[in-house]
Specification:
Bound molecules: 5-O-phosphono-beta-D-ribofuranosylamine
Distance between the termini: 12 Å
Largest sheet: 7 strands, mixed
Helix content: 25-40%
Number of helices: 6
Order of helices and strands: EHEHEHEHEHEEHEE
Shape: globular
Strand content: 15-25%
Structural class: alpha/beta
Number of strands: 9
Radius of gyration: 16 Å
Strand order of the largest sheet: 3-2-1-4-5-6-7
Amino acid sequence: MPELQVSWRRLGVLVSGRGSNLQALIAAIGRRELEATIAVVISNVPGVAALDHAAAAGIETLVLPHTGWPRREAYDEALAEALHARNVEVVCLAGFMRRLSSRFLEVFQGPVLNVHPSLLPAFPGLDSPGQAVAHGVKVAGCTVHLVTAELDAGPIVAQTAVPVLPGDTGETLAARILVEEHRLLPAAVARVVAGGWRIDGRRFVDA
Ligand code: GRF
């Protein structure tokens, strides 16, 4: 993956729902903690709150429904093209509830980040806080990782641990994790856009 230092500043954020992580990114950019611009927010679901948050911040929004495409790859190509058309350099999945194929990564080319509500590699997939409570772990958390073709398995950029408390449900634990996601995601995006890193095997390390 080429390292571009200063030019990795144009973000594309992909969303599907509530958009609280998008709001955290917008706030971090406003505070200059994240030196980047969100060029576009794309949702695969119409009418979601994330689109309202983007519009309120004056960010271009685009709804690209995933339904009605002949193949998954056709949708992923259209998504990558929409990002290219806006000169997006780094993609951030912020509650984008759709799996991207390797075709997306081939066409887009640049770094793609995802925030996931577990300490990966534990509890990939859906309802990770619920999985963590059911499993009885004592520590949960969140992970920001680079996206690869394998679900929730790419190089880990940053993680934050959160205690699991007696009486926690998936919902109460998810809420505690979400507070940390809102800190972790902007910091991890800032780390990636700053450059000076490389991938060593499956590890994200300083260059
Ligand atoms: C977050 O918990 C994120 O980790 C997961 O989906 C949720 C999105 O929340 N991938 P929001 O839309 O950012 O509020």
